[in-house]
Amino acid sequence: MSSPVPAVRIDVRPASRGDVLVLTIDNPPVNASSAAVRAGLLDGIRRLADDPALVAGVIIGARGTFVSGSDITEFDGPVPEPLLPTVIAAIEACPLPVVAALDGFALGGGLELALGCDYRIGSPGVRLGMPAVSLGMVPGAGGTQRLPRLVGPVAAIRLILTGRRISGAEGLALGLLDETTEADLLGAAVEAACRCSKRPTSGLPVPPVDEALFAAAVDDGMRTSKQRPNAADAVELVRMAGSVPVGAALAEERARFDRLRVGAEAAALRHIFFAERAAARRSGIRPSPTALRRTAVIGAGAMGSGIAAALARSGAEVMLIDVDTEQAARGRDRARQSLERAVARGLLEPETGERAASGLSSSGRMEDLAGAELVVEAVFEDAAIKAGVLVEAQRQAPSAVLVTNTSYLGVASLAAALPDPAALIGLHFFNPADVMRLVEVVPTALTAPETVSTVLRLVADMDKQPVLAGDREGFIGNRLFAAYRRHAEYLIEDGALPADVDRALEGFGFALGPFAVADLSGLQIAHSLRERLRREGRLPARYVDIPDVLVDQGRLGRRTSAGYYAYDEKGRRTADPLVDALVLAESARKGLRRRPIGPDEIVRRAVGALVVEGCRAVEDGTARHIDDVDVVMVNGFGFPRHLGGPMHWARQLPEGELATMAATVAQAAQEAADPALVLACLADEPRG
What we know:
Blueprint: E1 8-15, E2 18-25, H1 35-50, E3 54-61, H2 84-93, E4 98-102, E5 105-107, H3 109-115, E6 119-122, E7 127-129, H4 143-151, H5 153-162, E8 166-167, H6 168-174, E9 179-180, H7 185-195, H8 211-224, H9 229-240, H10 246-261, H11 264-279, E10 294-298, H12 302-313, E11 317-321, H13 325-344, H14 350-358, E12 360-363, E13 374-377, H15 383-396, E14 401-404, H16 411-415, E15 424-429, E16 438-442, H17 449-461, E17 465-468, H18 477-494, H19 498-508, H20 514-521, H21 523-535, H22 546-552, E18 565-567, E19 573-575, H23 577-589, H24 599-619, H25 626-637, H26 646-651, H27 655-668, H28 675-682
């Protein structure tokens, strides 16, 4: 029986001034800081301190990455010894210098490990970040105390509150790295270890802080972190750096970390973290190893130009095609402007933005599709128009993967018109496509595995979040949101007003309530869908006429300065007495006895509608797993991330409350209740 491979390999490497101990972290797949890694590092540091033949140490990661972060599967209970602060304390107490050689990712606990070393050398492409706040915690191994000593409190609080990943070049400019090299990283680190001296980061002074800049950084970061309490903890801890003895500050940091990591919010954020990664693997098909080079988008409207910008960010060349040549050129220019905005906001490296913009072109000729490896159809949401465009696209580019961007139409019905239906797959981008991370991936029964493999690689290259969805109307997201919107309408017929509903759900954590969202999107969009359902005889058993009356009155939302709300010239909303009167009149016309409905009931009914419809989507195969429902609603529809998604939120409720909620939702919709379906669905825990 073979012995287990150690998580940390210990080697001795001769160098210019003596032997250097090299500790190589080897914990597949991403070198997470597990108990085995920490124990191996501690053993290595003790050997370094005790061996008189050694002059220095180097810590490096195997397979091109340092440490991607802590092993967060350890965070649900007591973290096994040795703890990361113990390892870092041993590094700082070691009489010999220790160099961190950083490549790939040095995130969270990995970056804190590097901060505990005496010198940091990285490749230009290394990605550095401190994501603890985005996981409901604070850094727990010295990040709030050592980072300010290297980069200053202002830069430190920005990195900690936003969780932003920075490049090696930016890390060098900030002072987080001492050196970058494009040469052999290990060789350069060994030589650096021979020439550097002992320099514990915790002993460095904190640079003077500009209070105005620090306050501005805190304001920006608190907005990014949605004003969560753990973000306020992080601010207090960074303020302690330099004003409280470092030992006491480190102890306080760890105490807050331990309190937060076992809290409900951190558990919810860990849930969505794992759910997102599992969603990308549901197809069982590996992403293609080959990146796409030549792509095209047909349809140069807002959605088409957004998709073009997202494709360009993936590194592919993109031709934007429209029957109107000038419209195609305008769409190309919009895509370039999107890239410029991303660069200006620090979301895209300038050289990456320039390279992506240079790869964008436009055309008014379908013949220019020849040679494209992938073609995205993004024309008007009409089945006949889309089918015709796809047939012509396949004629011009017969070997290309075809993608239809549709919100509601059946992908299989579009594939039926194609000579090669195996080449077609649905990708439902969310608007704006260049900003929103969620993409619903919709294969049909005829879609070839190679087609799925190609688009999974593309979605990854675009840095999007894929979720596999069944080919049913509305897929996962729009189907659930339609149920949520219907139940919001039932609430205003039963006794609430639009502002009451929005206020309650925004208090729950949504950025906007359902009626504010409707006004922002435009009431005519949902109206068109209802009219189609009316023609097809598929309206719900309980139907609310209020949104149709608003459309008939020309109240189409923010763009007309009137919808469910009135809007001033700056787009600020106020409750409109005319709408409130309309709501009251509609309830009276239907003979409904209105009653006061409080915020708790509003939340239980509206979010309960998401839960019930999510369970139905899982039951009929539209969603492959309940966790996928959470990923869609968090990433595509603004469900509060710190609550983990509607299904995770519901799983925290007692069984009796769940059954009551399911019955209440059914009663409001005038449907038969099936609490057993909800209870059985939510009992399915695996993350597959």
